[in-house]
Amino acid sequence: MERIINCLPNLESYSRTITDNLIKILKNEGFTPYEGFNENAELNISIGGDGAFLHAVRTSKFSHIPFIGINTGTLGFFPEITPDNMENFIEQYKSANYRINEINIIECVVHGKNSVFKTYAVNDIAIKRHDMKTAHLRMYFNDNYLQTISGDGIIISSPLGSSAYNYSAGGSLVYPSLKTLQIMPLAPLISNAYRCLSSSLIVPPEFEVKIIPESTDDYALTLVVDGICYEFEHIDSVIFFTSAKTINQLTIGEFNYWNVIKDKLL
């Protein structure tokens, strides 16, 4: 039976070279490499950094086919295989010496005047004004109003994404196996005129987080979804929750989150 493995590189020349080497190794080991996404494959391999991994997930439309990455970038939280360890990885994979980790993702629904837009994110979604002026965003949990955040915007992050933009903005690290959403204000205004919580809020998966812009007529909002920008005008509300949809990440050996944090951040 044909064993197809998807190879999903970024556009860097070094990644191209590594992809060519990977394809040779896969063919020698009896696999059928496919450049791009084939829904009949048994594994997705991204080649690049975190951006390549996230792009591979989006290209596959958040497929349940497991993902693993070969790191040709700099930091790389998601890709765990180094280019010089590809042959060993394929041997380990053939021997079924791996684990599959289920990753929870964010689901986002944007309600406009005459439209509904749905998207998903592995790491985070940031909401900002398109003109980069101060955004005034009313926040509700399960339709209960809590506060209006005035500032640069808001980041909604998954546990896995808590170590990315959220962490840089001052948010907390959350262990990946926890099912939570974290809401982090971006440069909130704290004054006599404007006041809100300056720390992040972490809520359980059954909570629905609703953001309503204070004005729907005089400015547009930008949603940055795992680094991809979407622009909207006349938004009524943006709703976030932990999605029932998940993705699978393949890892070789024992995954140790704290070793990853130590190696990448400390």
Note the main attributes of this structure:
266 residues, alpha+beta, six-stranded antiparallel sheet, 16 strands, 41% strand, elongated
Brief summary:
It is built from 5 helices and 16 strands. It has 266 residues and is of the alpha+beta class. The longest helix has 16 residues, at 13-28.
Set down the secondary structure blueprint:
Layout lengths: L3 E6 L3 H16 L3 E4 L7 E6 L1 H10 L7 E5 L14 H9 L4 E14 L3 E6 L2 E6 L5 E7 L2 E8 L1 E5 L7 H4 L12 E6 L14 E3 L5 E5 L7 E5 L2 E5 L2 E17 L5 H9 L1
Parallel strand pairs: 1-2, 1-3, 3-4
Antiparallel strand pairs: 5-6, 5-16, 7-10, 7-14, 8-9, 8-13, 10-11, 11-12, 13-16, 14-15
Polypeptide structure, described:
This protein is an alpha+beta fold. It contains 5 helices and 16 strands. The protein has a 6-stranded antiparallel β-sheet with strand order 6-5-16-13-8-9, with no helix packed on it. The longest helix has 16 residues. The protein is elongated, with a radius of gyration of 20 Å. The relative contact order is 0.16.
